[in-house]
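Field log, afternoon session.

UNIT: design team B
ACTIVITY: writing a sequence onto a fixed backbone
BACKBONE:
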């Protein structure tokens, strides 16, 4: 997977101050597939964008919430005809390793 440089937000959103985030979070083991509307509201501080080996754009971010509520990983993959199941594999410090399973719609 090839990473992409993050473009400045066109919505004019500014980054949230560090004290606006919980000091620690519980990661939800399973994430969600988000629509374009949710992606536009993603937190730019937790957003990562990349391209798959086949050249498709993919974006992932964390929806951080204070414990004890688990914080899910959110994925936006505009490829139509697929359902996405993101799953957290491991986390350490400020890094999260996750996998995505694709399901074809029939």
């Amino acid at each position: 997977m090839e990473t992409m440089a993050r473009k400045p937000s066109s919505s004019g959103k500014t980054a949230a101050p560090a004290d606006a985030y919980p000091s620690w979070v519980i990661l939800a083991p399973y994430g969600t597939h988000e629509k374009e509307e949710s992606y536009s509201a993603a937190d730019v501080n937790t957003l990562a964008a990349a391209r798959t080996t086949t050249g498709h754009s993919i974006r992932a971010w964390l929806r951080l919430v204070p414990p004890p509520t688990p914080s899910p990983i959110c994925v936006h993959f505009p490829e139509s005809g697929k359902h996405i199941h993101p799953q957290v594999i491991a986390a350490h410090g400020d890094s999260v390793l996750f996998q995505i399973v694709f399901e074809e719609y029939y």
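LOG NOTE: Residues 24-104 form one domain.
NEXT ACTIVITY: expression trials, pending approval
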